[in-house]
Amino acid sequence: xSKPSDLIQGTLDLLILRxxxxxxxxxxxIAKRIEQVSEDVLQVTQGALYPALHRLExxxxxxxxxxxxxxxxxxxxxxxTRAGRKQLEKEMAQWERLSRAVGQVVRMAED
Amino acid sequence: MRSWDVIRMRWRTLRRRPRVEDELERELRxxxxxxxxxxxxxxxxxxxxxxxxxxxxxxxAQIQEDCRDxxxxxxxxxxxxxLRYALRMLKKSPGxxxxxxxxxxxxxxxxxxxxxxIDGVLLRPLPYPEANRIVRIFFHSxxxxxxxxxxxxxxxxxxxxxxxxxxxAFTRGDLQLSGSGRPEQFTxxxxxxxxxxxxxxxxxxxxxxxxxxxIPGNELSVILSDRLWRDRFAADPNIIGRKITLDxxxxxxxxxxxxxxxxxxxxYHGVAYGQTVDxxxxxxxRGNPNQxxxxxxEVIGRLKPGVxxxxxxxxxxxxxxxxxxxxxxxxxxxxxxxxxxxxxxxxVLLGAVALVLLIACANAANLLLARATARRSExxxxxxxxxxxxxxxxxxxxxxxxxxxxxGALALAMAAGAVRVLVALLPAxxxxxxxxHTNAEVFVFTFLITLGAGILFGLAPALxxxxxxxxxxxxxxxRGATSGGRSLRLRNVLVVGEIGLASVLLIGAGLLLRSFVNxxxxxxxxRPEHVLTAQISLPDATYKPPDAMRFYDRLLxxxxxxxxxxxxxxxxxxxWTGYDENIGGFTIxxxxxxxxxxxxxxxxxxxxxxxxxxxxxxxxxxFFTTADGAQALMINQAMARSYWPGKDAVGSRIxxxxxxxxxxxxxVVGIVGDVKDRPTSAMAEMAxxxxxxxxxxxxxxxxxxxxxxxxxxxxxxDIRRAVAQLDPTLAVADIRPMExxxxxxxxxxxxxxxLVALFAGLALTLAAIGIYGVIAYSVGQRTQEFGLRMxxxxxxxxxxxxxxxxxxxxxxxGVGVGLIAALALGRVLRSLLYxxxxxxxxxxxxxxxxxxxxxxxxxxxxxxxxxGVDPAHALRAE
Lengths: 111, 878
Description:
The complex is a heterodimer.
Chain A lengths: L5 H15 L4 E2 H11 L8 H14 L2 E7 L5 E7 L1 H29 L1
Antiparallel strand pairs in A: 1-3, 2-3
Chain B lengths: L1 H14 L1 H25 L4 H12 L2 H11 L3 H19 L1 H30 L10 E7 L10 H10 L3 E9 L2 E3 L6 E3 L1 E4 L3 H5 L5 E2 L14 E4 L1 H8 L9 E4 L2 E8 L22 E4 L15 E6 L5 H11 L8 E6 H41 L1 H9 L4 H37 L14 H28 L2 H7 L7 H38 L9 E7 L7 H16 L4 E7 L11 E6 L10 E8 L3 H5 L3 E4 L10 E5 H7 L9 E3 L10 E7 L14 E5 L9 E8 L7 H11 L5 E6 H8 L1 H35 L1 H9 L4 H34 L11 H27 L3 H7 L1
Parallel strand pairs in B: 5-10, 7-9, 16-21, 18-20
Antiparallel strand pairs in B: 1-11, 1-12, 2-5, 2-11, 3-4, 6-9, 7-10, 8-9, 13-22, 13-23, 14-22, 15-16, 15-19, 17-20, 18-21, 19-20
């Protein structure tokens, strides 16, 4: 019943959009990709992933279609829409600013 | 653009719900299989791989629900599900459903019907462009609230006032159209230049009057109403320029007004607001501009943009002393002048139906609460299966909304019929009755109050149901009284409220009933039975004053000799048909008026038999006779009391001349009883009657009154025949039995009484249902207690008294609340009351007794049931 907090949800949105920026992927592949790239630091649970995908689709940032995978199975592939690309840029910029700011604060605390 | 995409997306989700659900399931299954495959490649046996994948995935149903939530369509789906569930529940208990839906439909329908009237009469703008700038202008003084202007006063205002874009004056001037068929008199007004321009209206054909038409000698042109043009001139497209004979004179048609030309209404020789006028002709400024004693022009003006009525009034009051000393100017928005008198009545009615709706809501809440208690175990099971508090509340609200919507739909159908009945019942002369319809606004209003009512009466039961401690309820199995205590308390409060509100309405109805009875029993000052009245208007062109007097003398001789006529008279007016502020200042022989005042009274004309025909009693002296000539005078009691207090006025002499010669003195020969302007007027105005033989006052337009022995309608032919024998070109207009006139004058009190009594009856019924419900429920709950009491030797009478006492306690509390509220609200009704105070103790006492009696009656059945409890059975039941 509990929903991810805003920070995590927002971050997950960013991760999904970034992962889809290269090519369309299905949900499983998105989760795997995030785990791989983050060297298993970020574990995406299905309970968070699929609601997030559906929400992003409702927002109009990604769209979905059914295609065959390499193993010739039917899967639902998601790809970025134009609005999604813009949103990705916006969220990246925001993330940069936020992480830089957090970094500065943390360093100052060390001084 | 994007938000449109989002909406489209959600709509698709909603519409193709099965497919979307199916896709979601396939998507999750694919994920599960991928995970299982990965587990297998790590070396797990297939069955174990699949179990591990499932564990990893977590609750599939939960994910699905979350995905649905993300699609934001859950709300609508839930609502839909809730509504279907609610419908099933309602079908299960049809009796309950029918009672709530019907009572709500009656209450909402009454609101819609009254709102239709308010919408048509009060809310719809007047049918003139920028109508808020149109105002009426009157003179005003300590003695006269609204007084017409002298034509030259008007002309000075028109020339000097800067607040107005345009200004016009008008005065009643009916004309007779003769030609083919029976002569007919048409309602007409004499208007100054640009009268229609002030209203923002334009002729459909031809032109309206200009300043040239105001010059004496140019009056013989006429503008026709669309109706007259169609009915009498076959919609002749070439009518402009044609000559027609009106009042025996050749008038040229200069214009035709379009349909929908509404007369703005007027006070003196009043014609109601609406499409009530047939023709308009020019007002010419005749006579000496320095003699301004006679006031008969009603004025209308269009303010310049941005000028408030108050500013215009201040400006005119600054100019008025230059030519009309002693008068103040009143500038009243036209809207208020037209609807003002009916506004109070309509708002009172709206208040009454709003109370009925509140009672119906309390009643519905009450019944729902009772059922919620009965459904406790069902709700507890739902809660146990994981329904959240919000979902439970939503479910209960969906049920109440569904009930409300069913009631609202039924209400709309009933309102459509009720509005037609209402319009037919509206009092005589009610403004704007033909703009009352059930339209889109009424529909929206009904929908909104339906939703509001649904939430209002659903909220308490919903919260009550959802509050509940799950544990308690499951353990009780929905039978114990643990959570019933709070519910019962709330229901008691609701019932007290219902009885209170119903008492307020009953008191309102009672006060109106007493007023109406007072009005009917009040002595009108005349006897309307068997009297027929009519109007006769002699054309100025063919009847000089001596001719007119001769005409009436001969008419009266002819009428008074008819076999079925007991008395026939003519006078300048008949009672209760509106009045003319004809006041004369005069001198009483040997008396001085108090400083700063003068002797004055309204004057009328009357032939000798006028008073006998109308049944106005003689209280002193004698009626004047034809032998008295022009020097005799009748006065009323009000005048005798004021100017000859404690003395006999008969024989006194008065004169209207400043330097009277012997022939200018008139002698009071008789005193007649008082007749008020309207049955509801506070008191009769001082008045006197001149014989028609006098010479100052035009006698062309007179009212005829004839008294017969039987049905007055039979006398109409006598009047027509007598008039036709003297002059076949004359019309006999406005033939009305005096009883109709008297009846029209009490139609407003009757209308308000009828509706408020209807609403009070409805309210009382609802309150009775409410009290019955609570008592019946409580008797059901206390079955064992009653059984025990009887087993211990209590009399059935004791048990019955116990139950009745409970009902009476509720009724007493309700009546107490109601009486206090009615006392506080009394002043709202005061202007609709006659001869009874707003805090009339008799009414209050009767209502209190009636409400308590109804409460006892409503408790009787459950009380009977309580005495019928079999002790053994009741004790075993636990």
